[in-house]
Structure formats: C-alpha cells, structure tokens
Amino acid sequence: MYELDKHTPYRHARYQFTPLPLIQRGLAHHEAGHVVLGQLIGFTCECVRIYPITRDGVTGWTGTTTWAQSFGSYLDIAVVCGAAGQAADLRQLAESGRLIPETASLTVADHDKQMALSILNAEGVPVTETEPAPDGGLAWDHVMATAQQRVDREWDRITAVAEALLAAPDCTLTGTQAAQIADITA
Fold first, then answer.
1. Average pLDDT per run of 10 along the chain, which is 186 residues long?
2. Whole-prediction pTM value?
3. Residue 115: exposed, middle, or buried by beta-carbon count in 10 A (0-12, 13-18, 19+)?
4. How far, in Å, CA of 70 to CA of 58, rounded?
5. Which helix (H) or strand (E) holds 104?
6. Of 46, 77, 160, 166, which residue is 20 to 30 A from 181 by alpha carbon distance?
7. In terms of C-beta density within 10 A (0-12 exposed, 13-18 middle, 19 or more buried), how is residue 16 classed?
8. 52 phi and psi, to 5 degrees?
9. E strands in 38-183
10. How far apart (Å, rounded) are the C-alpha atoms in residues 164 and 172?
11. What DSSP string describes 26-71?
C-alpha cells in the first residue's frame, strides 16, 4: 500500500500570502490528479483526502491518496505517483488565471517525485532529469510532459473529483466515490 503526499504540511513561508481556500483548491486538484490518472490505468484507490494538520505548533494543510494496489508500466507509476499532482495543480492555476512563476513554484511536489524515484530505483529503473533517457529508463522531463498531457485529456474528471473533495464531509472521498464521480469503471 502506498500513501501519496503525506508530507510536511507546515504553513511554509512560501504560502504566507496565499488564502486558505486557494491552498485547499490546489491540494484538491493535486490529489484528484493522482486519483483520476491512477484509477484510469487500474490502480485501486482506497481513500483520498485533504486535511489540516498541526506539527510543532504550526497548522497547515496536506493531502493523501492511499492505494490498495498499484501496477502498470514504469512510466505509468512515475506519472501517477510522481507527477500527476503537480501537473493538475499547474492546470488549475492556469485555468483560474493565477499561473505565474511564483505560484508555479508552489506546486512543486518533490515528495511525490522522491516516492516515484524510490519505487523506480527499487525496480532498477534508471532515471535522468532530462532526455535522452538511459536504456530501460526514464527521463523526468518526459514524465512531467506525459503527466501534463494526461491531465489535460482528463481535466473534466479531475475537476469533478476536486470539487467533490472540497464539498465532501471532512474533505474525504473513498476510492469508489472518486471513481463514480469521475465516471471510471473497472
């Protein structure tokens, strides 16, 4: 079982001028990106949620997507686990007219990338930052480009799940609920 995005949720200085509803919207789209793209290739999602958390007296927001089962090509795993959230967050910023270099930097999800790299490294898959990819490996710029293409193609589904997540009690959906909202069938 993998949990995506369980990372340090500090109300980091880089977010200090971002209103809470915009942070929540970004997180909802980020998690919805993981869920929709994962479920479309056969990953089994147990739960997706965004929530407040306090550590060391500082309250912030974070999100998690919990998978019961994940499989696919190495590119699929890299896209779903490592890049989908960031790509979806970038798209929602562009759609809302708020995509500028400063807001784009807020979407960087190094924790997702590191999880994907850990999975790939454990499988012996070499990864470089830029093309060309090594034999049998991946280039991260290709992973991000693929994630953005898939997010663009599935944007209506991602938005539907993000909006439902924001409206749900405790900002939590089961994987089954997310699949139904996105009209994804097994």
1. 45 61 92 96 94 81 87 89 94 92 84 90 92 93 96 98 97 97 90
2. 0.90
3. buried
4. 33
5. helix 101-106
6. 77
7. exposed
8. -80, 150
9. 44-55, 58-69, 127-128, 138-139, 172-174
10. 9
11. HHHHHHHHHHHHHHHTT-EEEEEEEEEEEETTEEEEEEEEEEEE--
